Amino acid sequence: MTYTNFTLDIDGDGLALVTWDMPNRSMNVIDQRVMDELEAIVDKVVGDPAIKGAVVTSAKETFCAGADLNMLEKLNRLFAEMVRAQGEEAAVARLFEESRRLSLIYRRLETSGKPWVAAINGTALGGGFELCLACHHRVAAQNPNTRVGLPEIKVGLFPGAGGTQRIVRLLPPADALQLLLKGEQLRLDRAKALKLVDAVVPPEELITAAKDWIKAGGKAVAPWDDKNFRLPGGLVWSKAGMMTFPPANAIYRRETYDNYPAARAVMQVVFDGLQVPFDTALRIESRWFAKILRSPEAAAMIRSLFVSLQELNKGARRPAHIAPKRLQKVGIIGAGFMGAGIAYVTALAGLEVVLIDRDQALAEKGKAHSDKLMTEQVNRGRAKPEEKEALLRRITPAADYAALAGCDLVIEAVFEDRKVKAEAYAKAGAVVADDVTFGSNTSTLPITSLAKDYKRAENFIGIHFFSPVEKMMLVEIIRGKNTGEAALATALDYVRAIKKTPIVVNDSRGFYTSRVVGTYLREGHLMLSEGIPAAMIENVARMAGMPVGPLALTDEVAVDLAWRILKATEADLGPGAVDPMQKALLEDMVEKRGRLGRKNGKGFYDYPEKGPKRLWPGLADLQPRTLTADEIDRAGRALVEELKQRFLAIQALETARCFEEGVLTDVREADVGSILGFGFAPFTGGTLSYIDMMGTRKFVELCRRLEKKYGPRFKPSKLLLDMAKKGETFYGRFAPGEKAAA
User: Fold this and answer.
1) Rounded distance, CA 141 to CA 188, Å?
2) Would you state the torsion angle of the CA atoms of residues 144, 149, 155, 156, taken in this order, to the nearest 10 degrees?
3) To 10 degrees, the CA torsion angle through 167, 171, 176, 178?
4) CA distance 650 to 660
5) Residue 741 above 50 pLDDT?
6) Does the bond joining 261 to the residue before it have cis omega, within 30 degrees of 0?
7) Backbone φ/ψ region at 381: left (φ over 0), alpha (ψ -120 to 50), beta
8) Please, are residues 674 and 686 in contact by the beta-carbon 8 Å criterion?
C-alpha cells in the first residue's frame, strides 16, 4: 500500500520506523485518511514475521495536534442525515461504530504481540497522545516547548480513543481525573514524573533510544494486560476509592454546576471503567463518547472554540486584496497598566516597542511592568534570563513623541478623556508618517468621533485590548465610519503577530463586548435593588456559567467607572437610556460611600490586607427590602432558574441587537468574542449559539415572559421576531463570513 501521510521504513534489525508527515499541513492531525493508513500499517507490522517491532514518530516539529474536529462535525452531520433516512436507532449504531474506530485501531496496535514505541519529537495532544499511551514505551526528545496532554474537555468532548482508561490505569484516579477534567498540557519533566513518558533524551538520540528499548527485550504487553496488574489507586469500592470518588464528584459539581456533559461523562467512564475488564472499559468509553459527540454543547463548543476560532486566527476577516504587512516597530502612547501590558505582549512577539508617557519616569515605570512579568516567567522556568534581557532591549521608554518616528503602527492607551486623547493624537500626528495606522485602545468612546481629532481618519481604528493584556486572548478591532481597508488589514496583521484572536466590529457606543458586559453588570445591580441577596446573585451567575459574578466584576472594572459610563450615557441619550434603580445604586456606592471597587479596597466587596475578599455587609442597607430565607425557599428552584435565564438571556439579546444594528457582521465573531472577551458560558458556544441551541422561537418566548415581568429591556428585537416566525437560526440565516442583512 502507498501511504500519503506516513512513511514505513524497516531496518536490518527488523524494526519498523513509522514516520507521520501529513502533506500541506503544519501539524499532523487525525482524519479519516490517517486512520485508514494507520490501520493498514498496524496490520502490516502484525502480519509480517520479519518485523520485530515498530517506532512511531513525526517528521514535523510537533508529534500530533489531535483529531481533526472538522471530521467530528461531519460525523454529526452524517448522524442527522441517517436519523432522517433510517431512524434514530440505526443512526446511533452507525455513529457508535464510526466514533470508536480509532480506539479499536489503537487497541489492535497495543495487543499486536509486537512492541511499539512512541518517539515523541514534539507536542502530542488529544488523539495523538492517546496513540502514545497505546504504545508500550514512550520516549520524548528534550524540548522545553513540548507539551503532552488530553485537552478535549475544552471543546466539550473527552478522550475517546482509550485515553480515559489508560490514564486512569497509569495514575491514581484523583490525578487522572484532574488531568482529564482540566485538559492540562504537561511539560515533559512533569509527564515523566507521572510516568506518562518513560524517558527523555537528547533530540539526536530519540530514534536510537526508541529502537534500543525494543532490542533490549522491550515487553509487548501493556501493564493492564498483565495478569498481575494492580490499579495504582486501588479498587473503586475500596477505602482509597471512597476517599476519591465522592470528593471528586463534589468538586466536579462545584466547578461545573453540571453544565458540561463531557465532564460528567468523564466522571462516569472512569468510575465504571475501573470496575470491568479493559476491553469492556473501552466499550463504555466509546458509548459515552458517541453520546457526548451528538450533544448540543459539544457541537456548539467545537464550532466556536475550534472551527471559528481557527478561522478568525488565520485571518478570516482580513481584506484579501491587501498584501500582508510585516510590522517591525510599534509605538504605544500611555505607559499605564494597559499600555504597559500592550508593550509587553508586543515585545514578546519580537517587535520593537516605543513606550511613550508624559515624562521619562512614567515611561520607565511602564517598562518595569515587562521586567516584572518576565522575571516571574524566569523564576517559574518558563523563560531564560537571556530571553528576558532581549525582550527588555526591545522596549524603548521615552517622553519625547519624536521617538515614534519610523513606527509601522501606533496604539494610544491613555486615560479615557477626549481632551487627553486629542492632545496625544496631535503630538503623534506631527511625527509619524501619513500612511501609518493609528489605533486607540478605548473601551467605550466611539471611534468615528475620536478619529476627527487625528490627521487622517482613514488610518484611524480601534484596537481594544482586555485586562490583563498578557492573559486575555481577545482583541476587539473597531472600524469607524471612515476607517480604510489598509488600516483594518494592518490591525489584523498586528493582532496575529502577537498571537491573539481578533474580532472586527463596527463603531457604536460600547462597541460589542463592553456593551454586552454592561447588560450583565446592570442585571446584577438590578437584582440587588430588587432584594435578591448579594451572595445569591454571585452564586447564581456562576451557576449560569459565568466565570465571575456581576458584583465582583463591577469591582474589578471599577464601580466609579460604571458610574461615569452611566452618567455619560444619560447625558448623551437622555434619562430614558438608563435604569433609575441602577443609577440610584451606583450613585449611593460612589458619591455617598466612596466605594470605588477593588482599586480603593472597597466596593461591593471588602478587600482586607490579609485574607480573601468578602461581600460588604453594608449591601443589605442599600436594598429597599431583602428577600427572606422563607421567601427564597418557597420560590425554590424556579427562582434560581429565572435568575440564570436573566443573566444569559439579557447578554444574548443585546448581542442579537448588535447583529441587527450591524455592529456585528459575523456570527463567528459574536460567539468567539463573547467567550474570550467576557467569559459568556462556554458550554453554550457563545451568545448567538445560546439562542440557536434553545431555538429562536423558545428564546423569543423567554424574552416575552421576562419583558412582562421585568420591563422593556427584555423586549425581543425585530430580527429575532422575524427569525422566530420563520423558524430560523443565526447560523442558518447568516452563514459564517456573510454580513448580516438585518
Assistant:
1) 9
2) -160
3) -140
4) 15
5) no
6) no
7) left
8) yes
Domain ranges of the chain: 6-292, 329-507, 514-733
Superfamily of domain 329-507: NAD(P)-binding Rossmann-like Domain (3.40.50.720)
309-327 per-position pLDDT tens digit: 999 999 999 999 999 989 9
The residues with which 19 forms a beta bridge, in sequence order, are 7, 57
Cell of 539: 452564586
Between CA 6 and CA 331 the distance in angstroms is 47
The string over 119-132, giving b where at least 16 C-beta atoms fall within 10 Å of a residue's C-beta and e elsewhere, is: bbbbbbbbbbbbbb
Return the DSSP state at 597: B
For 6-292, the fitting CATH number among 3.30.70.240, 2.60.40.1120, 3.90.226.10, 3.90.76.10 is 3.90.226.10
pLDDT of residue 721: 98
pTM of the full structure: 0.92
Assess if CATH 3.40.50.300 describes domain 514-733.
no
- Three cell numbers at 336? 499605564
Q: Of the candidates 312, 266, 251, 226, which has an alpha carbon nearest to the alpha carbon of residue 667?
A: 312
Tell me the CB-side half-sphere exposure of residue 297, using CA atoms within 13 A: 20
Burial letters 699-709, b for 16+ CB under 10 A, else e = bbebbeebeee
Range 254-261, long-range pairs (CB < 8 A, 24+ positions): 255/181, 257/542, 257/543, 257/545, 259/297, 259/545, 259/681, 259/683, 260/153, 260/156, 260/297, 260/683, 261/156, 261/292, 261/295, 261/297, 261/298
* H-state helical runs in 172-277: 173-182, 188-193, 206-215, 239-242, 245-256, 261-273
Question: Higher pLDDT residue, 572 or 668?
Answer: 668
- Does 738 score more than 80 pLDDT? no
Enzyme catalytic residues: 464
How far is it, in rounded angstroms, from Cα 568 to Cα 2? 68
Residue (of 515, 511, 528) closest to 577 by Cα position: 515
| Residue closest to 502 by CA, chosen among 668, 372, 291, 617 | 668
Alpha-carbon span 436 to 455, nearest angstrom: 11
Q: Closest by alpha carbon to 53, among 14, 92, 23, 83?
A: 14
The dihedral region occupied by 218, where left means phi > 0, alpha psi between -120 and 50, and beta the remainder, is beta
Which H or E element spans position 165? helix 163-170
Q: What is the DSSP letter of 652?
A: H
Task: Please return the burial class of 31, using the count of CB atoms within 10 Å of its CB with bins 0-12, 13-18 and 19+.
Answer: middle
Name which of 651, 346, 687, 667 is nearest 505 in CA terms: 667
Quick check: 162 and 199 in contact, CB under 8 A?
Answer: no
Residues 6+ apart with CB under 8 A from 600: 594
Task: Give the per-residue pLDDT at 737.
Answer: 54
pLDDT digits (tens, 9 = 90+) for 55-71: 999 999 999 999 988 88
695: left (phi over 0), alpha (psi -120 to 50) or beta: left
